[in-house]
Batch of 2 targets.
Target 1
Amino acid sequence: MASILYFRRVLFCSALFLLFFISLFEFLTDFDLERTHTPTESLNLTMSSLTCTKLTLFTVIAVFIQIIGLLLFVLGFFPVKSALSGVSGVESYRPPGCSSVQNQNVTTPISHELHRSLYRELSEIPPLFDRLILMVIDGLPAEFVLGKDGKPPPKALVEAMPFTQSLLAKGMAIGYHAKAASPTVTMPRLKAVVSGAIGGFLDIAFNFNTQALSDDNLIGQFFRIGWKMVMLGDETWLKLFPGLFTRHDGVSSFFVKDTVHVDHNVSRHLNEELNRTDWNMLILHYLGLDHVGHTGGRNSVLMGPKLTEMDEVIEKIHLSTIQTRNIDNERTLLMVISDHGMAENGNHGGSSFEETDSLALFIGLRNYYHASASHITAHQVDIAPTLALLFGVPIPKNNVGILLMENFHSLTDDQQLRALELNSWQLLRLLEVQLPDLACGSLSCNVSGDFHWYHANKCTGGVEEMFCCLFLDAAALHKSWKSKKVAGANNRDDYSASVLAYKEFLKTASQWISRRATNRPIGLLAAGLAVMVLSCMLLLRLLLQLCREVHLRKEPHLSDVNNNMHKGHLDQTFVLAIILILVLSMGSSSMVEEEQYIWHFVTSTLYLVLLRKTIQCIPPGMVQGSLGAIRGQNQRIYIQTCSTIVILVSGRLLRGWHQGGVNWTHLPDISKWLEQAGSAHIKAIHLISCLLVISLSLYTLSLLSSHRNFVMVVGFIFLFPGLLVLQHIIKYNNSGFAASSYGATLMAQIIYTILGIFTLVIVIALPWLMPVRNLETCSRPDLYLATDVLSDVQSKLLLGGFRDSTYVIGWVYMFCWCLLQLLLQQPINSMPVLLLLIQILASMCYYSNSDLHLKQWVEVGALYYLAMAGHFGLGNTNTLATIDVAGAFIGISNHSTLFSGILMFVITYASPMLVLLSMVMYISLKDTIPLMNAQDVDFGHLLKMTVGFPCLVPLGLNSIFLVAYTIVLLLMRNHLFVWSVFSPKYMYVCATTTCVFIGAFIVASTGIYTCMVFSFRRMLQNSSRNASQERMVSG
Amino acid sequence: MAAKKKKHTKALRKINGTVSSASASQLQAFMLHVICGLGLASAFWVAHNVYSISLISDPSQTLRLIWLVEALIVILFYSLFRQNPNECSYLKAVGRGLLGLPAGAVMNAFGAIVLGAPVHIHYFRKTLDWSLLMSVFTFVPAASIFGSSWIDWQRIFAHTKPIGCIDYMICLPAHGAVIGAWFGAWPMPLDWERPWQVFVLLPLNMICYM
């Protein structure tokens, strides 16, 4: 109920924001897109409503506000935790902020023993225990052991755990309802238990390549004081702490249906380990109970026997600890915890009470004061500071937990206050990072005992002042208590007052920090969503306007085309249906996991629909068609059919190349088959695809019929980097060590440089150099009189020049991108790169032969879908695990996050970027001349007609997906898989948005630049012609 | 189901009213569909009770049984409605239907593979049987009735513009089967781990057929 209310609130706020923005927008700009144009209205009016400048301006505004909205939403949804790096050491036993301490920062390595004695001396608290047995029962709800709302658990459950219940009843154990934070899945919860910190999602996302816990934590602290640790159970521990365990036997949680063997594999070592005395810490992680829950739910029939089994383990350990206590006088603490609870159906991951209700049970301390109070609530993070102080190690740096004071009652008053003080210092340090203005740490050094800081009234004011006040209160009371004690007057009231003051501070600080870590500010989310919706609407409106305009332009032209063009619009409907299908499928976690199937399925279907459309166009008298026009059309249809089939077949190969997804990765695919066949085959395929890419590209270039010689020069220039890449493949691939050698790195760097420089130079110089038949060739004197005709011819020639140069520039972009991919991608992916290139070229072939059969936005949309299908065809998935990290270090000599980040992006977004770059070539294919007013070639208008769709359609489609997915993420924020499925997918969506922005920017800027150069050239020609005309006249 | 049938008959009646040149009456068309439906049902019954196989336990065998029964019925009955019955004998129409069966299977297999059906020797028989069955619904009726008349084929399959009762007899099952199979493929990626997920496509296209 609360979550629905929350969502409603977010939606309501965003609607308000949206209304505000729209009204502001309409007020500020006279943006009359709403104006309806009837076809009978004059064309001039329609044209004036959306000029090129206006279109560009509004698109830029839309993109800009989309970026802002995305940033706002991401910042709101994934709060960045400001974690402290480093490890708590001796400084944690000194008050924070005292300047004198800073100098004593000893960095020389100290031995384990020295650490231990140093800590013991500084902490002034003797360790209460020597050995720790941490027994983790995965998924055990605390309710099963402690009951709920003060009531004991159901009778069946009490009977299932007789020993544990008797311990609780006798006051030999104390149990807590330890509230776990979301996400309630094992790894983040274990991190919370050992480090006391609450992590954000972005921490997981940024650390995708290392699973090891690098933050300060208890296991690391124990390791530093020389503890020998043994781990039996879930192998998550081994991933988190590689190399810290002396002995370990990890079991995998893979077979969820197995409820017996996972636990047997842990218990089989138990007797042996309990008899040994060489360890200080024993971790037992039992997965069976979680598996019981997953298979049979909370009330499964297997639950009782499983609880009994756990109870027997606890009994065995307890008896053995009593024995060791009697023999060696070693005090052992048995701690039984669970990482999370489970919902009614046995699943977990969300934040309902059943899932967050985890257990913390301390066994081994004698005489608890409140033995009956076995349902105390705490937080899971409280375990870390408690254990740290019980065992005499510093509290981990990022801990937000509070001491569980019930465990410290055997200490003296002095020591108890000291423990609270240490916890407060640690939290104060954490607060100082979050609130840089907080400066009471330094004050605390100077608090004097006789100075009565204590306020009877409540601390108020800003956050900083409140914390300061609370802390200083506690510190002052502590100090005054100490000075009185020295004087001999041991006042019980003073003691409890300072304990209360400390507890007050700890509680407030802990709550504030943890709320900050998990809080999602509604304002930010709503503003982000609203801004994204606004920009999406703006883009779609622009697109609609452009469509309408093109349609009106084409209308006179279309009237004489034969009638059946108007009939079937299945392709347009289907392109729109794909959007709907994808948006709907995003709501299901399995569909997000297996997204590649959807993209492939809908893209193939779209091309089948296009095939059907092509067949529709076959004239009835195909066989006996002897007229030239019909023959030409037949040839066109033939080419279209062939290219569609080529696209379909290579799409199928791409799909078969990587199985992809999450659930069916074990199924056979071509890449696995090739890897089994051996590296020689892979290398051969790599070489063949490289050669084919080069030859295919050169062939494509040679298709440009005019200026063959000029184009061939460009081709030969680019043969050089092609050959370099080929040499790199022959020389360095396939041998793991050589790939990182100096030569390989140098060569990769040379290739990057050459590709970058060549592309830049060609793109800048080409529009200037592109030969256009100028005045000399067509300056026959008889034409001089007809100036109108001349200027018309000239404009058309320049238009041809524009098309030719965009064709060549598009080719350069695509070829360079493919070469880069061949260099960077894994060898196995070289063939998919080739297949992608084939698909795109075939699409180009198809579109260049279909003048008016297809709407332009359908074509661009189809290309975009092809890009997304290809993205998954390259082996990408929606989990962060498939990002090719190894490839990101090719050609990088020293570690640079920026460069490897860029390379990673280049590798991951190979396919969408290739398609976006191919849009430059697509511009040149559209026959724009019939659209032009022959009298004056307005380059602004030309630009709008050619560059408009290739930029706006991807931007519009992407903005729809972005908005839809943002809403899905908001709806799913309490879903079981929000962190494992939906959030990584959102990262990908954000990266795709970036990719589309970059691509659209490149397309637009190339188009604008080329256009400007040509309009400048026309101006030059006009002036020179006028000059020569004047000469003629005067002569 | 009943409502669907009713709608179907209504549509047929409408056509019959407008197009006078239809050589098959609405009743005949209805009977034909009933016979096809019965054939399908009996094939299922035989598979279930005589051979005790189902689509889930032994898809290949079941599919083979179904398409054999259906092909027999479809070819024999649709050939009765052949175009130009004077120029083209009944046997020739049957022969055309038999030729259309493998040709249609090739087309359907191409479509299925392009849309993602597995290409593996392991799945070969299943794909083959499936495409033969699809061919029975899509290609064979048209082949029996029209032969190689391109205009009619284009009218039915590319433009979906049926004129008259016979056209509807071909058009509805063909499009129903294709659209049903297309939608039937949707639940496949869901990880519900239910065996029927894989074969949900057939029941669905049956429903569409009905």
Target 2
Amino acid sequence: MFDLLFLPFFQRAILVGVMMAVAAALLGIFVVVRRMAFFTDAVAHASITGVAIALLIGVHPFIGAVVVSMLMGLLVARLRRSGTHDVDTIIGVLFSSALAFGVVLMTLLPRYRGNLFMYLFGDILTLRTSDVITAAILLVVVICGVIALFTQLTRMAVHEDMARVDGVPVGRVEIIFLLLLSMVVTAGLTMVGGILMGALMILPAATAQYVAKSFRGLVIVSVLCGAIAMLGGLFASAVFGTPTGPTVVLVSAILFSAAALRGILKS
Amino acid sequence: MHQLPKQNNLESKNVLTAKEVSVSLFGTKIIENISVDLSVGQVLAIVGPNGAGKTTFMKALLGLLPHTGSVLWAPSVRIGYVPQKVFISRAFPLTVEELFLLRRGTRAFWFRTGKATEHTKKWLSRVGAENLFKKQLAVLSGGELQRVMIAYALADDANVLCLDEPAAGIDIGGGQTIYSLLKDLSLQEQRTIILISHELDIVFRYADEVVCIDKRMICRGSPHVVLTAENIERMYGSHTALYAHDGETHTHQHV
């Protein structure tokens, strides 16, 4: 198994995987504490439509995915704030439709039909050196963004109106957060795919909540859980010959189950 | 950035002047033409039956809802807002100490100082909640959370406190403690308090000014002057009346 560590493609997978897992876990903390779990699914599913539209009009898929997933995020945020009845149903319909539209659109592009499976379920073992650089830049951007917005996002999680009265620019913070989220989700498409990206983001924080005694603890444990699940999933997929993305999510789910069981037994 | 309209030419003692404030949501008028004036150190109670638009009016004053009419705050105001319900899920293990540190920036949050701890404990002790310093917000009772939130609002040196039903869901003793604290803050420290309540006995006991609303303004002024049987009936219906017990006035509803 340790021979894998000497293979360049596996080294790249480890580097990109861990960096993206840390970035996803950092953002996932705020997704979980702000009770926006459905939000990441909406953004992740919409990113596939973004890729399809970008391929159709000849733009880089990353740009298409970021733009469309951000638009979806803004729409979902607005719907959520509007207080309209049945908002969950509307959002459910919206992001399922976005995914369906993206898949149909991509199958209409004969040259890219083969990439569909990769965008849906990811393939971390095909990454290039340029992907390592992109992931490193993205991680730095996410860390800087989270440091800059840390107290504001946390205060919004306590109570949005209180934060607003205190002078937190809620609208602006929301847009920057969405931009970071869309970039990480889009980058994650090639790793675990659009369908499972939401899980990669939410599971570490969901696991940490059973262990952490403070918010500081939640941040540290979430990041560790994200990185451990990624490493464990990569090795497990190599050993058992299973698809990498789903295996990473499964390892993350096992960690979550263990933490939840511990929490239940303790209480 | 959320900014409240402020005007320098308000009279020196005036904290707030709101004129003919109306709010419409989804094409329906929620409140219509409500006005208040408030001076430094006063306690203003917004009263009315359920669904009268009390919270809507407070949110309009705070600039949280689009409205027509004018709302002008004095330039020196620092507002602390305590909403009616703050829901902290178990998935959010923020401690009381961490909540207070959030106001001091990311560095202070991660690298605590003795000064910050002292500051937090000072404000918690004001509301009798210093023992909650290390506790998670999610495990606090309704009354404990309310006291922590009031301390949190005060800790930013707020000179105006806006509280939406500060004693909702708290036992009688806990409620009295909160209202006594608010009265002290107004009398001893000249902090201005705006609170929502539907308990008229509380209003009689603690408020200097009252604005009674039921979508529209029913009355406005000193509680002992404007909370007449007639105005109360206009707000709550004919089954509500005023009774005096041991020198204090209470409302009772009879079916």
